[in-house]
Amino acid sequence: MNTHIKKLFTLGLAALALTVSRAQEIDITHTGDGFGKKPVPISISGFSGEVLEVLKFDLYVQGFSFVSPEAAVYQVSGSNAGDVTGTLTLGKRAVFSRSYNGANVRRQAHALADDIAEAATGLKGIGKSKIAFKSQSAGGEGEIFVSDFDGHGAQPVTSDNAIVAKPAWMPGRMALYYTSYTKGNPDIFSHSLSSGQRRVIAAYPGLNTSASVSPDGTKVAMVLGKAGSPNIWVCDADGKNLKRITTGNEDSSPCWSPDGQWICFAAKISGRRRLAKVSAEGGAVIPFNTSGMASPSEPDWSPDGKWIAFTRLAGDFDICVMSADGRVPATVVAAGENPSWSPNSRTLVFNHSINHRQVLSVLDVFTKQYKDCARAAGSNSQPAWAK
Amino acid sequence: MKLNKLILPLVLALVAMLATTGCKHGFSGKTTNLKNSNGGQVGNPEDFQTKPVKFDDGTGNGPGNEGSKKDQFGRTPLSTTLNPDIMDQNRSAFAANTVHFDYDSAVVKDKEQVNLAFVAQTLATDATGAVLIEGNCDERGTEEYNRTLGEHRAEALREALIKNGVSGDRIAVRSYGKDKPADPGHSEAAYAKNRRGEFVLLHPK
Asked: Do A201 and A186 meet the contact criterion of CB atoms below 8 Å apart?
């Protein structure tokens, strides 16, 4: 972070502290079971072009709606003549006044949007976060890409010109795990984005796919077919100490609970499609009650531990969210598939179909507001939000 | 579709964007070093080894547990010695023997026995031959759900071939999920063609 921003941030903390009690009254944080909460009305003035676009995108997918200054709870005004400057007021009270420099105006705009979102919701903003995803041509070949959370600045990570699948981040590091058919068989690779080096993690006979790294970065859960059925296996981050965790007919899409104790996955149990959890050490498979949502798959456990997002297939795909403790039943929040939580457990990135091509979209779960990301070449799917 | 109404303006914007940037771009790039474009979020240089970990799992599913022996769960572990990617692959030998499945099912239907018998007979008279079974799915279901379903289909066909007398260590499996459709259409007829298992005859190079 630029030192100038840091100074302003420190000054802003004092102002932020003043607004905390009021922000809680507005309550757009997900303390209850409410999906479909009202967005927070905000007015924006003084910005133009790309900066205005970024502000509106970022704030919309973090639960704000845009209204006139008179109708707004929060007002943001400022300028992008040169560097970005912005002032946030809550009614007549100034919340903060900051200027941003360094990087580019796009990143400055993300930083301002983050500061506004954090002031209003108490949650760290998502504007500077990254996603990884798969981009596929009509022929099936594709590459793994990394971009900003809104799809901008997409860069290919691989140059395999092969079927690729399911990127997953190593928590807190610029490193990915993913599947590639580059050698023919679907194998799992780890790939350091800082050094560009990659290595084989799992290249066993049959299926090797759906890598998911434990929150502490030490273990990888994945689907292997080597035992004669596609099951969940766990190994160390370097591929060693492989252990079979499940023995069902059709296990897929493992993800970790944030405490690293559980692996949630999709299974076929007694002929029924279910979501289930199993201890990361193996043991009894415990089905979730997904309240009749057809063919649940692709679970993702929110970093705060409260929620599990997943995909259901009922004609078209839908994104569903339920509480991990079973108290809040599964609810459809958008049409789409492959949800992945933001680091602050409020937003999902997912993909949905437009004329049979997949497009990434960012969804504010608790207001159900979403916007499509900028698109890289081809069909974009299986997004993974860096945490 | 309900989404289309909501996002029509965005689609139009996207079309305009694609028109100016072109669609072909992006698949030819080399491995990209993102260190400098990261904006300081995360990123420690890592000292990954380059030596691959391959075909060595330390779980006891080694050479002693191969062939057609079932494990305690009734499955036959895959051969750890048969690698189709270093063999000659003949896709025409069994082109007429592709097996089809019902929706969301890996059950091998009785009527497919004739195809299984043909593959088994061919291998019985071909001492150096082996077979790769490729499992495929229609586009309903997510990509990973279908990758698992395709694997289950290929493995179900593998068990069926073993019942037809083929040794398990001559059968490899591969799932393409929904990434390699036989018919790119979106109709029920296309889906029926795509729910399939294909046999590829393998020989040492």
From this structure: no
